[in-house]
C-alpha cells in the first residue's frame, strides 16, 4: 500500500502498482498536482522521478517554490530526479521509449511522473502506435511497482482527452477543471474512474496555494447520526420553549436585519458558559477584533463583571474566525469550515451572519452544502448555532427546516414605542411566544447564577488547598 497525502482522502491507500491519469485544459493545475504528489512522496523518503517534455527545471522549481514546495532541496538529497526529454519529431518514438525505460529502471522509484504523455500520443500512429503505448505504460507500472502518474492535455473547450487507449490502463482518472464563479476562479477535480475505491463524491473542489494543490473533500454522510448528551440551558423559559437541547443539534436564532436585539448573541454565550463548551465563532461579517469586543460585552452583561475574568473565560472558551464568503466558492467555503472543525475539535460552532454566505451563491447549492456540513457537525456531537438576519423568507424556511430549535426575535412597531417578542420552537413541541425582555432577564439570571456558583466552588477549592487562603498554620512547631 502507498499513501499519497493529496490523494488519500479521495482514494485511500493505493494498492501498487497503480496508474493515475491527470487530464485537463492547459493552466488548470495538472503540473502543480503532479509536482505536489512527487514532493509529498519524496518528503516521506520515497524517491520520485519527474519526466517532462516541455518544462524547464529552473522554471518548474521556481514556480513550485513560490507555492512553498522546495523540489530543489529534495533533489539535492537524492529523493527527486528531474529529467527533460526532447519532443518527438516524427512517428519513430522508440528512442524516447528506450530513454524512458532507462530512466525508470536506473533506480528504485516509488513515484514516476510523466508530464505529459500528449507529445508521445501525437507522434504515435493513431491505432497501432497508441495501442503499443498503452501496453508500454501498463508494463511500466509493473516495473515501477509504485505509483505511475500520467499527465494528459485536454484542448480548450473540451473535457475529453485524446488518450483514450491509456484510459483503459489507468486505475484512476482525475479530470481537473476550472470555471469562473462570481468573478472568482473555482477549481474542481472530477474522479471519472477509481478502480477498487468507492467514490462517494464524483467531483471535489481544490485550491492552488501554499503547499501546492489542496483537495477539499466535503463530508457526505449516508445516514443522519445520533445526537449527544443533553445540555444545560439554565433559563426556565428556554427549557420550556426548547425542551432538552443536545450536543449535535442545530439552533437557529434569527432577528430583523435593521434592528438587532442583543438577546440573539447572549443565548449562545449562556449555553457556552453553562456547559463549558469550547466554541468556534465564525463571522462572515466582522473582523476578529470586533467579534472579541462584542463577546466580552456579552460576557460582562451575563454577570462576568471583572474585565480580567471575562477575558480569561473568552480565552478559554472562544476562538474567532472571520471569513469573507464572497472570496470563495460555496464548496470551498464549507470545506474550509470543516477543516477548521477537524483541527480545533470544538464543542460548539457559532455561525454569524450566514445570510451573507447564502447571498454569495444560489440557494439550492448553498442548502445542499449546508445540510451536509450540519450532518457532519452532528456526527462529531458539535452544537451548531446560526445567528442570522431574516432577509429572505424562503431561506428562513429552509434553515428552520434544518434546525432542531428556533428563536425568532421580532420587532413589534404597531403601537407606541417599539417592543420585542421571541418565537421559540423546538421539534416535537408547540411553538410559544414570549417577551424578549422577559427572556433576557431569565437568561441573565441563569448566567449570573452559574457564575456565582463557579466563583463559590473556586473559593472552596482554594480554601482547601494547602497554604492557600484561610488555612491557619499550627504554632506547635
How would you summarize what this structure contains?
The protein has 477 residues and is α/β, with parallel strands linked by helices. The chain has helices spanning 5-11, 30-43, 57-66, 71-76, 94-105, 118-123, 128-144, 164-167, 236-242, 263-275, 288-301, 307-317, 330-344, 354-359, 363-379, 393-402, 436-464, and strands at residues 18-24, 48-52, 80-84, 111-115, 147-153, 172-181, 184-194, 203-209, 212-215, 230-231, 245-246, 250-255, 279-283, 318-322, 348-352, 383-389, 405-412, 419-426, 432-435. The chain has two domains: 5-215, P-loop containing nucleotide triphosphate hydrolases (Rossmann fold, 3-Layer(aba) Sandwich), CATH 3.40.50; 230-459, Rossmann fold (3-Layer(aba) Sandwich).
Task: Kindly describe this structure.
The protein is of the alpha/beta class and 477 residues long. It folds into 2 domains: 5-215, Rossmann fold; 230-459, 3-Layer(aba) Sandwich (Rossmann fold), CATH 3.40.50.300. Helix content is 42%, strand content 24%. It has helices spanning 5-11, 30-43, 57-66, 71-76, 94-105, 118-123, 128-144, 164-167, 236-242, 263-275, 288-301, 307-317, 330-344, 354-359, 363-379, 393-402, 436-464, and strands at residues 18-24, 48-52, 80-84, 111-115, 147-153, 172-181, 184-194, 203-209, 212-215, 230-231, 245-246, 250-255, 279-283, 318-322, 348-352, 383-389, 405-412, 419-426, 432-435. It is elongated, with a radius of gyration of 29 Å.
